[in-house]
Amino acid sequence: MSLQDIEIKSEYRSLLDNVAKDFYIPLLQQAVSYKRAVGFFSSSALVEISKGISALVKNGGKILLVASPYLSAEDVEAIRKGYELRDNIIKKALVRELKEAKDVYEKDRLNLLANLISDGILDIKIAFTEDENKMGMYHEKMGIISDDFGNKVAFSGSMNESAAAMTLNYETIDVFCSWKGEQDRVAAKENAFASIWNDCEPNIRIIDFPNLKQEIIDRYKKATPNYDIDKHEFGERIYVLEEATKYRLGPDIPRNVQLHDYQIKAIDEWEKRDYRGIFDMATGTGKTFTGLGAIARLSERVSDKLAVIIVCPYQHLVEQWVEDIVKFNMNPIIGYSASSQKDWKRRLEDAIRDQKLKVRNKEFFCFICTNATFSSDFVQTQINKIRGNALLVVDEAHNFGAEYLSKLLSEKFTYRLALSATLERHNDEEGTAKLFSYFGEKCIEYSLDRAIEEKKLTRYKYYPIIVTLNDDELRRYSELTYEIGKCLIKGKNGKVKLSEKGKILALARARLVAGAEDKITKLEEYIRPYLHDRHILVYCGATKLLRENQDFTTVDDEDLRQIDVVTDLLGNKLNMKVSQFTSKEDVEEREILKREFADGDTLQALIAIKCLDEGVNIPKIKVAFILASTTNPKEYIQRRGRVLRLAEGKEYAEIYDFIALPRPLDDVPSLTVEQMKKELSLVKNELCRAEEFARIAMNMVEAESVLDEIKEAYSINDNLITFEEDFDYGQ
């Protein structure tokens, strides 16, 4: 394709047209050269100039940028009186305009530009007028975009390359195309730019500031550039020119997304059940896309007159959803404590009002938030104001079986969809029953076994590594077990449960097992063959649970103790390139870490807490060392599934699972019956997880031989390996 294949208007007005999406991005997608004079130089101008250039860069293109310094009255007076060298004053004025990025998009865009300067793809020169020693500002706004076929588009006008000009001021640009009989106008603009760039234009001076370019690199270059920033900010559709003229106003499945048969069948079943149901799908099998496809199906059925509320437990899950939501032709309102949309509350109020008043083309809206935001008084008040069709989509829906969330499952939502890889709640039949009662039956049950068999997830090898408590740890474990035994009380349903004191003791015991000293010793032994590899995850235990009013799980000093020890071992003693990945890192920092981890050049291993439970998407993980023990099937099934996501060059994954036992197996025969009884619950629960992992591993026989040694030592019959209540709170 060429520039001639794009529908180009002769004029664009900032309050009527989305200039980035309608003009820059489509044209630059086909371009190999972009020459731009932008008026004043600023970080805001750099951000705006970045829109669309990713595609040009992929075409092997080059960018030339001319800008003028914004000089204050004091700057001009200082130059006139010769207080300071002109170039120094200009340089200070330029650096003054390099502001901090306002959000993750600006960070990515400035990082991209800094990388392009560093790679010699983008060059910047500073222009100003000078006549008889009187200095002024060069303020012409124009540009020339050229493709590989000799086609050129020139444009000029009052529009500055700044956020304010793009969105607030009423400004225009005029456009001229070389193939439309406007060759002379195009040539005039191109000659003028060449004269300015080469410092041949009368009364216009050009300064090439290498220090300015280095300042931009030092200030903004943070990581590998995100060349998909336009897709993330504006949505996938901006790259599909065939769709640029007409498409539905509501959600729609992109043409470059082909749902699998099982996904379509799930949506069909959901439709048959009056748009209520559950998608029970293993991690990594396209649960999000299936949910978005269901939203598109329902919205089309109700003529795009629909309020969609999507709820996720964590901040970063919301952001992962947003990346996909925009691909499905939706512009979501994003609500959580640290949302980049600072005015999300106003947006939600406006959207609900517009739907209620049936404002044309505004009867559809999508609001996505965290569990904590959803349960807030503000959001609940707004939901109660909805008068039209409403759909509730809950990701990781097992969380909504908890009492504080289940009471918010309102009849306001005629349409309902629950998504989860493990809907059944651990040790909570009542909470599980609430979920089925509200959302309906399962429309699909797509297991991890099937996902591996059908190559939707990768195969894996499983290595159970036996670790044991040392003498001090075993003594403390026995003391805690004894104290926990005195804290059992009967609940309302007659079932035995722990008192509040018992829960604290159980948490202390869980910490003890999670932080067993032998895990570090064994980790050093088993990670040595991978010292020069990459895409490694070391997963540490966290014992804190997500609180009702939180968007992310916090970690404390106890949780960080093990991760700090592991970091010291891998980073200092073994000289590996590692980084921690915890709730201390915000959404933007996590995205940078994920990109660096995927590249593998500067980061070999992530040392993480909670990421495998929270739905963090890191497909490149090839080797996982799971130090954290858990008896909760929901957690360990999710942990395994997230390691098995498909990725280029990943033939299979390897999982090293640290099996915590009270003592070495050689010491077990000397135990009394009473001692054996106290240890069996921990041993059986560890075996319960390990048996599930080994069952479909590529090296099943090898893995099960290790487990057979444990069963033989403790005289455990295969038929007796079931989960036993061990009051394991939060490992």
TrEMBL record:
Keyword Nucleotide-binding annotated: yes
Matching SMART domains: DEXDc, HELICc
InterPro entries (UniProt xref): ATP-dep_DNA_Helicase, Helicase/UvrB_N, Helicase_ATP-bd, Helicase_C-like, P-loop_NTPase
Gene Ontology MF term list: ATP binding; DNA binding; helicase activity; hydrolase activity
Ranges for domain Helicase C-terminal: 515-684
Transmembrane helix recorded as keyword: no
Origin superkingdom: Bacteria
Segments forming domain Helicase ATP-binding: 268-441
PROSITE patterns in the record: HELICASE_ATP_BIND_1, HELICASE_CTER
Keywords noted in UniProt: ATP-binding, Helicase, Hydrolase, Nucleotide-binding
Pfam families hit by this protein: Helicase_C, ResIII
Signal sequence region: none
Protein's name in the database: Type III restriction protein res subunit
